[in-house]
């Protein structure tokens, strides 16, 4: 829904005494409108400077208009395409939500099955992909293995590979091709995670079920099968993740989503966009904080040491990763949903030694005035990790699996841009370094001694070379012929 002008911001520039009226649209202004505010360059009065906004960390800058996810941090609300997350959590599964985010509707049974089969068809790895993962030592870090696996898949994807060798956009205004590539990209990452898990643990990789769900096939490929029958994915784990992943399906303009869209603005493919998101998502201040939180839990070892650790945090001698969120001024609505899942799996949670430490930290953090006054609570990503541990997932795979639950939401944002005007993201900067004054700078010769001026021919700028020789075909004619042969 297009934004509407709801008022005007009246600005008086004290430098020039000029007044400006800047349109307000649904409680935001467009940064480009501020470019109307100009002032003379202090070094050259004939040059004007346009006003620029500086916002390190993008704390109060919106980079997109989107119809996908609403987060109201003041009221503690999340909606996907206008549906409250609580309703979706109680009445739908992750596949429904993926379809809603991507295609703006809840799927019919036939549509759901169609997407399942397309996922499964793309989940069968080639020998090159299997060999790529197998080339890593079994104790390698998961993160670089994820990148290598996706790249190996992309190398064999003709549409994705060809995108960098065509002058016509492959996906912009071509949603059918984009949708197929999105499905393959998600399938590639799911299969990569399964291959990594199997390689690290010397397990046999199982090909996907053509009619299985995305989560069910991930578990099947990883070897997490039904404990009673040994056939198909573990139903308890699948049921839990179908709900948990709804909480992670999208979270508006996160750092990783912004990274994905930044890459996407260059007209690159969805696989490359997903890689950009993963690079951001594994950073220590983003999804990578989960790994650091688990490392800290491992060092604490026992709940009896938790009070001493909390005192270290308060005195800034240690850091409590996974607590706090800059978007919410009240309780994150996902927390109560995840807590419901924890209660349903309470016996498994209490049996995990690492989680006993985690819950002891959470109990103290919820009672201590230091944390209460700062509204520092376990964020949804960390709380959800407790479930992964309780369900038997090893810590080296948890961050990677969480990113899989988020990638479809990020790609839904990418898809949303494909029918909008093409605009590459290129932020400004404020230069603060030393500067040589123009008056002290000798004029530089702009052309070398054998170059003539630029001239325009058929819309192409050509520079003549003064070689002193009579060429049979003038250089400017060669340039025109070359350009026509390459780009026409």
TrEMBL record:
GO terms for molecular function: acyltransferase activity, acyl groups converted into alkyl on transfer. The keyword Transferase applies. Pfam families: Citrate_synt. GO terms for biological process: carbohydrate metabolic process; tricarboxylic acid cycle. GO terms for cellular component: mitochondrial matrix. Residues 434-459 are annotated as: Disordered. Keywords: Transferase. The keyword Phosphoprotein does not apply. Belongs to the citrate synthase family. This is Citrate synthase.
């Amino acid at each position: 829904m297009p934004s509407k002008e709801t008022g005007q911001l009246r600005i008086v520039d004290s430098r020039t005494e000029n007044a400006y009226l800047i349109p307000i649209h649904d409680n935001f202004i467009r940064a480009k409108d501020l470019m109307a505010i100009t002032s003379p360059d202090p070094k050259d009065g004939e040059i004007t400077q346009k006003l620029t906004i500086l916002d390190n960390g993008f704390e109060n800058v919106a980079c997109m208009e989107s119809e996908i996810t609403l987060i109201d941090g003041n009221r503690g609300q999340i909606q996907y395409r206008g549906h409250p997350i609580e309703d979706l959590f109680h009445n739908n599964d992750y596949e429904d939500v993926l379809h809603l985010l991507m295609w703006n509707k809840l799927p019919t049974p036939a549509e759901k099955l169609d997407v399942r089969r397309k996922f499964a068809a793309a989940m069968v790895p080639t020998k090159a992909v299997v060999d790529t993962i197998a080339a890593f030592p079994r104790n390698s870090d998961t993160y670089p293995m994820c990148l290598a696996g996706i790249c190996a898949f992309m190398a064999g994807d003709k549409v994705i590979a060809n995108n960098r060798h065509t002058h016509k956009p492959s996906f912009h205004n071509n949603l059918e091709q984009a949708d197929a590539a999105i499905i393959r990209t998600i399938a590639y990452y799911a299969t990569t995670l399964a291959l990594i898990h199997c390689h690290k643990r010397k397990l046999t990789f199982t090909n996907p079920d053509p009619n299985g769900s995305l989560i069910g096939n991930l578990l099947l490929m990883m070897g997490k099968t039904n404990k009673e029958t040994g056939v198909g994915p573990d139903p308890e784990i699948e049921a839990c993740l179908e709900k948990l992943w709804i909480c992670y399906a999208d979270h508006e303009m996160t750092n990783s989503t912004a990274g994905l869209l930044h890459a996407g603005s260059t007209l690159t493919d969805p696989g490359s966009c997903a890689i950009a998101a993963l690079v951001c998502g594994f950073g220590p201040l983003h999804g990578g904080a989960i790994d650091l939180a688990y490392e800290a839990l491992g060092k604490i070892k026992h709940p009896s040491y938790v009070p001493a650790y909390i005192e270290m945090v308060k005195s800034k001698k240690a850091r409590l990763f996974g607590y706090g969120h800059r978007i919410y001024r009240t309780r994150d609505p996902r927390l109560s949903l995840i807590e419901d899942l924890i209660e349903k799996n309470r016996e498994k949670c209490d049996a995990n030694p690492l989680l006993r430490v985690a819950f002891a930290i959470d109990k103290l953090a919820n009672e201590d005035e230091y944390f209460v006054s700062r509204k520092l609570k376990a964020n949804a990503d960390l709380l959800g990790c407790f479930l992964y541990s309780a369900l038997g997932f090893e810590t080296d795979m948890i961050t990677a699996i969480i990113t899989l639950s988020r990638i479809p939401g990020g790609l839904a944002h990418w898809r949303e841009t494909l029918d909008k005007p093409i605009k590459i993201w290129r932020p400004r900067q404020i230069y603060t370094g030393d500067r040589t004054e123009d008056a002290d700078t000798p004029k530089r010769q702009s052309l070398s001694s054998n170059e003539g001026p630029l001239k325009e021919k058929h819309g192409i700028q050509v520079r003549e070379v003064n070689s002193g020789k009579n060429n049979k075909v003038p250089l400017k004619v060669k340039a025109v012929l070359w350009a026509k042969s390459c780009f026409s």
